[in-house]
Design a protein that fits this description.
Helix content is 10%, strand content 40%. By secondary structure, the chain is mainly β.
């Protein structure tokens, strides 16, 4: 079972990866420095350091599905 407090939803819009809001500074519609092709590498077992461009907070993405990024950091209260 995926730990929901470590998962964050994302969307792919025209080959760009967005989150509806930053889990740290709560800025809306954040474009992530991540490409859809990199999500395939993450799904196959690679980890990816993700730095949010709005507040420079860092998380390591350890897995991804079609809707959520799974990180090593607690992003919300369960």
């Amino acid at each position: 079972m995926i730990p929901f407090e470590r998962a964050w939803p994302y969307d792919i819009i025209m080959k760009d990866v967005y989150v509806s809001s930053c889990p740290f500074c709560h800025k809306d519609n954040v474009l992530l420095p991540l490409r859809p092709k990199e999500l395939d590498h993450i799904r196959s077992g690679r980890k990816k350091l993700l730095v949010f461009p709005c507040c420079h907070s860092r998380v390591t993405v350890v897995d991804a599905d079609q809707d959520y990024l799974l990180t090593d950091t607690k992003l919300r209260q369960a």
